[in-house]
Structure prediction request, 391 residues.
Amino acid sequence: MPGEQYAGRRVLVRVDFNVPTDDEGHITDDTRIQSALPTIDALIQADCAVTLCSHKGRPKGKVDPDESLAPIAEKLKEFIGDRVRFAPDCIGDDVAGMRAGLAGGQVLLLENTRFHPGEEDNDPEFARALAGDAQLYVDDAFGSVHRAHASTVGVTDHIDVCVAGKLVRTEIDRLTPCREASGDGFIVILGGAKVEDKINAIKLLLPRVERLLVGGAMGWAFFKAKGMEIGASLCKPESLEAAREIIAEMADWLDRMVLPRDVHMVQVEPDTGQVTFAPADGIQPGWNALDIGPETCEEFGRIIREEAEVVFWNGPMGLFEEPPFDEGTLAVGRALADTEAYTAVGGGDSVAAITHLELDDDMSHISTGGGASLEFVQGDDLPGIEALDDA
Prediction:
């Protein structure tokens, strides 16, 4: 984060304001906005003219009013007052004029960068326009540093000084124990629905961990890859293919992977709504597994409490949004709160479970970036970090 030598500069700050909103556009969780405040406040105190840019949602390069950052500008005013202005676009002559007119201590929030295809394409001309008149670039959007986009990488070619913000520095510091962990006591917990999204993580982490605990629909993909019946449980073809690839290529380390012993499932064919538990090899046709079962909860909890020295958790154990299929995710959260190990949590649903249980203060670190935290822990270089002068 810049010191006094950068006072009075014109600054472009990449923030992560991709916050959840309801059907009426009201912000339902402003954690990411609040997480950016220390960096914004420091720049205001240094009398910098501050321009903020962020993406929101996936508008695919087109203007989508539902993904506008206008409501976020209003929320930001609640924290830092009327010094905040909002630009109707992120590039263009009108926006350039608004940026040029900013005085020290004023803040301009640009409209969604993903309203332009040049953002995700990392288009050089779009990046040049987004960089504008900035003399200093501060990346404080940890949730986006694993993306080589114009606002995270491209702009650094057009701004003289590029540094990490307070949030990004904190994330790197607190996730480093997980990135450097290896061998006995290193426990990784992965959940969610898509094995294909985490195939590289599994390949890179399995040789490093003592145990890799697998939950959620990822588990059903491994069941099916082993020839087990999974009934109507979620398992996309690409997930099955990824599970088979891992089984074939990681044979020397598969004994470190702990799959669910039992499942929590509902009958859907016919749709009786009946809910029951079954052993992993006892899923019947017409039944949909939606969570790990109580034996698995007990086993995962024991491993976390008794064996762990460093734990990283990414992804829910089941359909967390619909009780009672949140029980597996909540059991993992309680076990993390009970252990004396270093515990880092990344991923929206995992964080939501910790928040729901009011266990935030019992975790060593709760990351603002799901994909970014996973890629950092597995050992990847993050494009947004590598592009900075102080990488």
Q: What stands out?
A: Residues 172-377 form a domain with the Rossmann fold fold (CATH 3.40.50.1260). The chain has two domains: 4-164, 172-377. The two ends are 12 Å apart (CA to CA). The CA atoms of residues 183 and 308 lie 11 Å apart.
